[in-house]
Prior knowledge:
By secondary structure, this protein is mainly α. It has helices at residues 9-14, 21-25, 31-49, 60-71, 76-83, 87-95, 103-110, 126-137, 142-148, 167-179, and strands at residues 56-58, 100-102, 122-124, 164-166.
Amino acid sequence: MRPATLPPVELLGANKPHGTRLRYMAGCRCLPCRAANSNYETMRAARRRMGLGNGLVSARRARRHVLQLSRAGVGYKTVAAVARVSNSVMFKIRQGIREQIRALTEKRILEVTSNDVRGSALIPAKPTWNKLNWLLEEGFTRTELARRLGSNAKVPALQVKKDVVTATTAKKVEALWRSFQ
């Protein structure tokens, strides 16, 4: 789908030098422009034969994946950053507004996992609290846990919400819990 704000190809290619594909697309059929177009099409065909084509594909798989990641605590902006896709495009994919995307964009989105959670992302606290409760049952005090988790207050206190925690906190608790397994 061509953006409405993009000028026509005739205007874009009018001032380009001969021997460029854009000049060919603007209507020039001189030998250098035909050669540039032929080279482009040959390279494109070769990439497709190698499985490196970048055609349009349905955005349904990417949308399902983004929604699944969202349920796991990975926001669409984090997915966009990791997959190198703009936030606005990712939002449109997530909402179902964007129905087709490039194959390589889909590939990058599908490669994002829940391990790519950013530090300040909020995730469910239950698994973290299961580990904290285990540590408390093993004899650690809340003050000791706070100190070991990095609190540098004069009087460290364990301050972890019951419903959600940051990914950073979850990773710190996970590391502490694993060190005593």
